[in-house]
Design brief:
By secondary structure, the chain is of the alpha+beta class. The protein contains 4 helices and 7 strands. The protein has a 7-stranded antiparallel sheet, covered by helices on one side. The radius of gyration is 14 Å and the shape is globular.
């Protein structure tokens, strides 16, 4: 399954194209710092619940909070890259791509979905199941 932590709702109203203009603006202006902080906070909070591996240049078991922040900062700053966060015991994967205003989560259990939804809300974001 494919889930988003933040979604536009694009396509449901008459101005779906405006989302892409806003997304481009937010990712390419100084405002991206606020998004970076929220995405980092979500990953760090999840690390308090789950054993994680990350794939950033190489697989790292139990990355430090500083490493998470450095990875997300570098990816957003360079406008290039992907950070994969693997929740080993949960068999779930969170993916952060530099060019999106969302975090994608694959194969979360019901319990994990509930925790992730609460964490997203705590950061002023929301949880939405992708339409397939």
């Amino acid at each position: 399954m494919f889930y988003y932590g933040l979604s536009s709702g694009a396509g449901k109203s008459g101005q779906w194209w405006a989302f892409f203009d806003v997304e481009y603006y937010l990712l390419n202006s100084d405002k991206h710092t606020g998004l970076k902080d929220r995405f980092v906070a979500i990953i760090l909070k999840l690390m308090c619940y789950y054993h994680v591996f990350i794939l950033w240049n190489e697989w790292v078991d139990l990355p430090s909070p500083k490493m998470i922040e450095e990875a997300v900062c570098e990816i957003m700053g360079n406008h290039l890259g992907t950070l994969n966060v693997l929740f080993v015991e949960e068999d779930a994967l969170l993916v952060f791509d530099w060019d999106c205003l969302n975090l994608s989560v694959y194969n979360p259990s019901d319990k994990t979905q509930s925790i992730m939804e609460k964490i997203a809300l705590s950061e002023g974001l929301f949880w939405r199941k992708a339409e397939v």
